[in-house]
Specification:
five-stranded mixed β-sheet; seven-stranded mixed β-sheet; 11 helices; alpha/beta; single chain
Length: about 325
């Protein structure tokens, strides 16, 4: 199959400054060649062509299709950190790209009035089924604003969204219009200085831009936001264990016990298989097995990464509308 290659960009797609610099890194996927550039003005790195593959692509991508059928039940560190930042206060929150709803379920438990949108229909259905969330819609943020011009929120979140989109200026202006005066946003994305082995999926067409502190701060400040809080999240010891467990060689030690237990629970009519006692027990035993098998090399890698910013896999930012 011939590989399609786009002409080099003449301007940065985010700030429109001329002549972004090629970083001489390329990636091919489904017959398309993507080249990595950096804008010397706004410091954002972007893959060219910069084009989101659309909802259908995500619904059939193995990373997201599997997520919908086997949803994560607990909030992650970015979710907990965001809610903790505002505690004991709470208000209204819209989660853009809410996925299976684990952040919204956590926010609701902490007293927030929650709403969510995602263009993945299966993800919305999984959120409703798994957590009983009600105010969810299949939409992107631009479509949602057109449907509900009267709505405003104290907080709009978009975790791991910014690196997927191809309309950053329209997106952030729409988010801004959905905020009350002095409202907040919380966003997260992969950290572009991370060791590549730790975030191997940070590639197009799944991810289209790469960010660090300087680029995200400039992007937000130029568009009417003041950054209030930045947290870098390092790869944990167990995160590295999991990376080794799913490596080419680690897969020889995979027996699929957790998957089989979930399939059995689903066949028996359990609404959320991941919550069954049997599945949770087998999952705990599997974690012990993985630590026994991969704990020593994971510990060595973790120690080697400690002095380096390459240990940070992602980061989240809280900013205020000004």
């Amino acid at each position: 199959m011939p590989v399609m290659q786009a002409d080099p960009p003449s301007v940065c797609p985010l700030c429109k400054m001329q002549h972004p610099v090629s970083l001489h890194e390329a990636h091919e996927d489904s017959g398309v060649r993507y080249d990595l550039y950096e804008c010397e003005a706004c410091r954002v790195q972007f893959w060219w062509p910069l084009k989101n593959p659309g909802a259908t692509w995500y619904e059939h991508d193995i990373r997201y299709e599997g997520r919908n059928h086997d949803p994560i039940l607990t909030p992650n560190e970015k979710h907990r950190g965001t809610i903790s930042y505002f505690a004991p206060n709470h208000g209204t929150v819209l989660d853009v790209g809410c996925g299976v709803g684990n952040f919204l379920a956590h926010a609701a438990q902490k007293g927030w009035n929650v709403s969510g949108i995602d263009f993945d229909h299966d993800g919305i259905e999984a959120a409703k089924k798994t957590f009983g969330l009600k105010d969810l819609e299949v939409a992107d943020v631009i479509e949602y604003k057109k449907r509900h011009p009267e709505k405003s929120f104290d907080l709009v979140t978009f975790f791991d969204v910014l690196e997927h989109i191809d309309n950053h200026n329209e997106f952030i202006e729409t988010v801004k219009s959905l905020l009350v005066t002095d409202g907040y946003i919380s966003l997260s994305m992969p950290y572009r200085h991370a060791w590549r082995w730790l975030i191997p999926a940070d590639l197009p067409p799944r991810h289209l831009t790469r960010w660090d502190d300087a680029s995200v701060e400039k992007f937000l400040s130029d568009r009417g936001f003041a950054v209030r809080h930045i947290v870098h999240l390092p790869a944990s010891f167990y995160f590295i264990v999991v990376k080794l467990r799913f490596s080419r060689y680690g897969r020889f030690f995979t027996f699929g016990a957790v998957r089989k237990a979930k399939e059995s629970a689903a066949h028996q009519g359990v609404a959320v298989p991941g919550r069954s006692i049997k599945v949770r027990t087998i999952h705990a035993l599997a974690k012990v097995k993985d630590i026994m098998l991969f704990g020593i090399p994971a510990g060595v890698i973790w120690l080697l990464l400690l002095p380096s910013q390459g240990r940070y896999t992602d980061f989240y930012v809280i900013a205020q509308k000004v």
